[in-house]
Specification:
The structure holds 2 protein chains of 2 kinds.
Chain A lengths: L1 H25 L24 E8 L9 H8 L3 E8 L2 H14 L6 E5 H10 L18 H6 L10 E13 H6 L6 H8 L3 H13 L6 E3 L2 H9 L19 H14 L12 H9 L2 E7 L2 H9 L7 E5 L5 E8 L7 H11 L2 H11 L2 E2 L12 H6 L5 H11 L9 H19 L3 H16 L2
Parallel strand pairs in A: 1-2, 1-3, 5-6
Antiparallel strand pairs in A: 3-8, 4-6, 4-7, 4-8, 4-9
Helix pairs in contact in A: 8-10, 9-10, 9-17, 10-17, 17-18
Chain B lengths: L3 H15 L4 H45 L1 E4 L2 E7 L3 H7 L2 H32 L6 H13 L2 H11 L6 H8 L11 H29 L3 H9 L4 H29 L3 H6 L16 H11 L3 H31 L2
Antiparallel strand pairs in B: 1-2
Classes of the chains: A alpha/beta, B mainly alpha.
Chain lengths: 443, 328
């Protein structure tokens, strides 16, 4: 009896070992079921053949918050809209990729982030409906359309927002450090090159108010600078050129000046400590795309009111933005296209902007844009619309590649972070990024 | 163990003896009965095995198939045969060996203190205490806390600028430590989350085993003049040996699969495990390759390497168990 118990215990242990290990492996093939595959639509009790359209999004798109779904359902009583939100893009996108390829389980409309749009264009074009013939393409900024267009001219996604860049800065801190505080004067001072912005940082640090730095992180400077380069990681023929690209080099050098000096608060964007940095006013400026304005207002809180201001960035640059695509797997293609078209129309984009400052990708919306009154007041009555639309119109088209995002991560989260937080030399940081990117590209 | 056949034989003969119905019908019914007895156990256990096959075995084999191909997440249908390329690639990859080293070192610095502390705590809880149930529940609360919530709090405690840990250290004249980016600091921080979450759980397992130790063993030890420490050392620990082995096995498996804590500790770029991959475990490396970079073939090869490593660990454990069981 004793031996048999022992054996069964051992078997149990082995079974447990096997189950646990294989569970881990299975985790990589299993798909989390969050109920978002419910696009069966029709006939759920209403009896009138009501169609349910689902839209898959990540983060906060603002459609629901701006009341657009309710409005659409009122306009189209036979349609009901349901949004399936996944918070993180790095969770959302792999899920969409596998479902697209499986040909089932996709939502009727899928949002695509700018970091994934090239991968979608190059590898998933046949899984998306060509929207080019259903819309007036001239509505959108040309560079926005170009990002979602395949080589043979198919448009797989309609532009939602864009992320034109400006510089958000603390007037009170600039003043204490003896810098100009007028937004036009500042824009004039650093006009043309992000390295001029960094030079101003050196001046700031000479008289910096105690406990403050000029900028939040070196990566934020890199990101802003590289977002306006006419070429970064890929050339227009799709070759990987990140290590000889002029845009990357200049942005890297600016970031290295920041990382090796004392002007950075050495924070990582979107960490809780970054939020605290806003609240405590530990850094005096940050390169801010339009969508970050609301974030700053929220995180800085009441104490920052009227102290923040916005100036035009040294060079036009873009960070972020998304698209809405309609997977061919949907059973309500016509209705889904109509909804995507409506949601991305200039009027609706203007409504989203009014709600949460996601900047429209449709220039015809610009003259009528009205940010919320308290947001304008928060940023010292800066002409937000003017600054961001001027930037949006002058952003150069930038070829993107399938592995753009992993390459970008390698430079920011490996290369720059090592120099900024681990005290490595710029050349060590560059080598580490190079090694990482080789691994990413499988070379 | 009694086999189903034995039970069957006994009960089948008894029904035949009891019923006086014609032999044909009886044999039909007994055959049915025999079939029922034989098949039912398998039917009853089948749900587990069906689910096991669908969600574990098939993915496991499919992952093996993937690991022998070049597969991108964005092009699952375009697989090209790679043979052992992915494995060779790992073998010569610094990132893989680094991840393996991190997994082992974080595993050791989290498991060893955790189990020692659990043993000590269980010993204390084994005394007559006022409100013992309350203490035990308190011990188990960290285990019931979600990884995400616990890690979020720990990340704040360990933050470089204004974190509580650095604030306490400054009273001892220690300069602020950049916990997330320093090599050993980050590993220690990740381990501390694991220790915090699992110590109570292991302590309760030890406690349960301790209470099954007959009191007369302690009495006779006391008669022989053993003090408390000697009793613990010579009575409690030897009696707990199978339990300790069990917790070692389970903790080792947990340590090999360490994933959630370092991922969330790293914040936005958590899958890198720090700018120098200083706390990137094998689990994180696999996640980074598969879901962030989209290199599924290589990620599958990492998964299978982990599986093989676990098999080796399990085999070592088995050998140790056998040896320890044989010794008195």
């Amino acid at each position: 009896m004793r031996t048999s118990i022992r054996r069964s215990q051992r078997l149990m242990a082995l079974a447990a070992v096997a189950a646990l290990t294989t569970g881990l492996l299975a985790g990589c093939a299993k798909d989390s079921d969050d109920g978002s595959s419910d696009n069966s639509g029709g006939g759920n009790g209403s009896g009138k053949g009501k169609i349910t359209l689902t839209i898959g999004t990540f983060g906060v798109f603002g459609y629901k918050q701006a009341g657009l779904y309710d409005e659409y359902m009122k306009l189209h009583p036979d349609i009901s809209v349901k949004e399936n939100v996944t918070t993180r893009t790095d969770v959302y996108w792999p899920k969409v990729l596998t479902r697209l390829q499986a040909g089932s389980g996709t939502d009727d409309i899928e949002a695509i982030e700018i970091g994934n749009i090239t991968e979608a264009v190059q590898t998933q074009a046949d899984k998306f409906v060509d929207l080019g013939k259903d819309v007036d393409k001239s509505q959108w900024l040309a560079w926005k359309n170009a990002q979602a267009t395949t080589k043979d001219g198919k448009l797989i996604g309609l532009g939602t927002d864009v992320g034109p860049m400006a510089v958000c800065y603390r007037k009170d801190l600039f003043q204490k450090a003896g810098l100009p505080t007028d937004r036009t004067k500042l824009a004039e001072l650093w006009k043309g090159d992000w390295s001029k912005y960094v030079d101003l940082g050196k001046q700031y640090m000479r008289k910096a108010p105690k406990g403050t730095t000029f900028v939040d992180s070196a990566s934020s400077v890199y990101n802003a600078a590289v977002g306006g380069a006419s070429e970064r990681y890929y050339d227009k023929d799709g070759n990987v050129v990140w290590d000889r690209s002029e845009g990357v080099k200049k942005a890297w050098d600016a970031a290295m000046t920041v990382a090796t000096s004392n002007m950075s608060a050495k924070l990582k964007q979107f960490d809780p400590t970054w939020d605290q940095g806003f609240a405590n006013g530990t850094f005096a400026s940050v390169a801010c795309p339009a969508w970050m304005v609301g974030y700053i207002e929220q995180k800085s809180g009441d104490s920052g009111k009227g102290k923040w201001d916005v100036a035009a960035a040294p060079a036009a640059s873009n960070w972020g933005g998304s698209f809405l695509g309609v997977p061919t797997a949907t059973s309500h293609q016509k209705e889904a296209v109509a909804l995507a078209k409506w949601l991305t129309a200039p009027e609706q984009q203007a409504k989203v902007f009014a709600k949460q400052a996601s900047f429209p990708s449709t220039p015809s919306a610009y003259p009528g844009l009205k940010p919320q009154a308290d947001t304008t007041a928060y940023f010292s009555d800066a002409p937000l619309t003017q600054i961001f639309s001027d930037a949006a119109k002058t952003i150069p088209p930038q070829p993107l590649g399938a592995k753009d995002k992993p390459i970008d991560n390698a430079i920011s989260d490996i290369g720059i972070l090592q120099v900024e937080q681990k005290g490595k030399s710029p050349s060590q940081g560059w080598d580490a990024a190079t090694k990482e990117i080789k691994d990413v590209l499988g070379q | 163990m009694t086999s189903p056949e034995q039970v069957l034989a006994r009960s089948a003969s008894s029904t035949e003896a009891a019923s006086g119905s014609p032999p044909g019908a009886a044999s039909w019914r007994s055959r049915l009965y025999r079939f029922d007895m034989k098949a039912s156990p398998y039917v009853f256990v089948s749900p587990f095995f069906v689910l096991f096959a669908a969600f574990t075995l098939v993915p496991l084999l499919y992952t093996a198939w993937y690991s022998l191909h070049h597969v991108q997440l964005s092009a699952l249908d375009h697989q090209t045969w790679a043979g052992l390329d992915n494995y060779r690639n790992l073998w010569s990859s610094d990132f893989f060996w680094n991840a393996l080293r991190n997994t082992l070192s974080i595993g050791v610095i989290s498991t060893v203190p955790q189990l020692l502390a659990a043993l000590g705590l269980a010993h204390l809880l084994n005394y007559r205490l006022r409100g013992s149930t309350a203490w035990r529940v308190v011990m188990l609360t960290p285990y019931a806390t979600s990884v995400a919530a616990a890690t979020l709090v720990f990340t704040l405690l360990y933050s470089w600028d204004g974190g509580m840990v650095n604030w306490i250290l400054h009273f001892f004249g220690v300069d602020p430590v950049n916990w997330r980016e320093s090599d050993w600091g980050s590993r220690f921080a990740v381990s501390s989350i694991v220790i915090w979450r699992w110590t109570g759980y292991n302590a309760l397992i030890y406690l349960a085993a301790m209470q099954a130790i007959p009191a007369d063993l302690y009495e006779s030890a006391a008669l022989d003049g053993a003090n408390r420490w000697q009793q613990f050392r010579h009575v409690t620990v030897p009696q707990l040996r199978p339990t300790i082995l069990f917790t070692v096995v389970v903790s080792t498996i947990g340590a090999t699969q360490l994933f959630g804590e370092p991922l969330l500790f790293g914040g936005v770029s958590g899958s890198k495990g720090g700018s120098e991959h200083q706390y990137q475990t094998l689990g994180l490396y696999m996640y980074d390759q598969g879901w962030i970079i989209g290199n599924l073939g290589k990620a599958s090869a990492i998964a299978w390497s982990m599986f093989l490593i676990l098999l080796v660990v399990a085999a070592v454990n088995l050998l140790l168990t056998r040896r320890l069981r044989k010794s008195p």
